[in-house]
Design goal:
With about 110 residues, the protein is α+β, with helices and mostly antiparallel strands. The protein contains 3 helices and 3 strands.
Length: about 110
């Protein structure tokens, strides 16, 4: 059965990514402070989603990335959380809810 492609998202997109990688035996448990850089991993993912989920990675308005060592038995990979925002006003309302003092009053933005 053929896969019917979905239309690409238009408008703002929020992306969160958790990268889990195998910890080398010589590295003690703890935070992953070695390469690759989290921002470079995220950049790769954003580029790969272009043309598959959204039309252009310039649509991505909010990002969050975390890299970590996978625990024993956990597969390596990336968990992606994508949120298609209906419009810029919706994003402002979400930010106002999360950080009420971080942006001007919505009435000032109109």
């Amino acid at each position: 059965q053929r896969h019917t492609p979905r239309p690409l998202w238009r408008g703002p997109v929020r992306v969160a990514a958790v990268f889990s990688m195998r910890r080398p035996e010589r590295i003690p448990p703890g935070p992953m402070l070695a390469p690759p850089d989290a921002d470079k991993l995220l950049r790769f993912v954003l580029d790969e989603l272009t043309g598959r989920i959204y039309a252009d990675d310039a649509q991505v308005t909010t990002t969050w990335a975390h890299k970590r060592y996978a625990v024993a038995g956990e597969p390596e990979g990336v968990a992606l959380f994508l949120h298609h925002l209906v419009g810029a006003r919706d994003e402002l309302e979400e930010w106002a809810r999360l950080a009420p003092n971080a942006i001007p009053e919505l009435s000032e933005v109109r």
